[in-house]
Amino acid sequence: MTTKETRPVFGKKNPYNYGVMPVLIVIQNDSGKTIRVQPLQAIWVSPDRERIEATPAKDVRYLTAPRRPSVGTGPASIPKLTGRKNPLDNWRIEGRAFAAQMLPPGQSASGFFYFQTGYQKGASLYLTGLREAESGKELLYFEIPVSAK
Length: 149
Known about the structure:
Blueprint: H1 3-10, E1 21-28, E2 35-36, E3 41-45, E4 51-53, H2 57-60, E5 70-73, E6 79-82, H3 91-95, E7 102-103, E8 108-115, E9 124-128, E10 131-132, E11 142-145
Antiparallel strand pairs: 1-8, 2-7, 2-10, 3-4, 3-9, 5-6, 9-11
């Protein structure tokens, strides 16, 4: 994931450069029934079978602490504080997260899940928690193999 590829979505700060891999999920409901999408659970499974649960979008900002501001000298006895903002404290991360609750027939929903890992050829993404809204019957889980770029 290059910054050029992620800039339209996340701005100047690519979360992947800070240890957070965003994965875009698009769900299309081609059934004739409404699907309850929440609570959708996403799990990244590495090639060596390590399971990594998605980090909630609201918690991503806390994964990298902001740097301590450096105190410079300013005009007489007024300290000049210079610091850097936490790169993961970005409204786009939470704003672009998967948030659909229900999915009517013929509709689609999309959004990002965030994982504290890097890209690994041969990994899989598991999605569970989709249910028929009317009956509450759980739909099958989905295993999505991750292919090479």
